[in-house]
Amino acid sequence: MNALDFFEARLQATVSPMDYLNMKKMNPDKYFLIDVRNGPEHVRNIIIQGANILPEQEIQNRLQEIPKDKEIIVYCWDVWCNTAAKVAKLLLERGYIVKELTGGIAAWREMNFPTSDTAQQEAFSIDCGC
Predict the structure, then answer these.
(1) What topology does CATH give the domain 3-127?
(2) Residue 32 is inside which H or E element, if any?
(3) How distant, in Å, are the alpha carbons of 23, 67, 77, 99, 126 from that of 103?
(4) pTM over 0.85
(5) How far apart are CA 18 and CA 30, in angstroms?
């Protein structure tokens, strides 16, 4: 593989936080964002706003929750984490259209993009009587 092929493949397989935010604004119903991080809930309590929480270890059993008619964006912790890449590969093998959010939640937070606190979301859903 030459450098041009490498960078073309990289751009097809990934999306930057800024590009994702812009794409989502232009076409909000086209994308399905998944937080695939593993680990205790207390360390995963901050998520990207609007993300669906499907830890990598649960993906196999929860595939029915992932829509086939949307472009799937997966993210994990940071550039050093390959969990999102593992999930992307699994989903691609099953016919999904998938990209990895580069830099994970760390890059998203570094840019001060919108996040949610899962503890507050749970408290709200309990308190509101939904």
Answers:
(1) Oxidized Rhodanese; domain 1 (3.40.250)
(2) strand 31-35
(3) 17, 24, 7, 12, 33
(4) yes
(5) 16
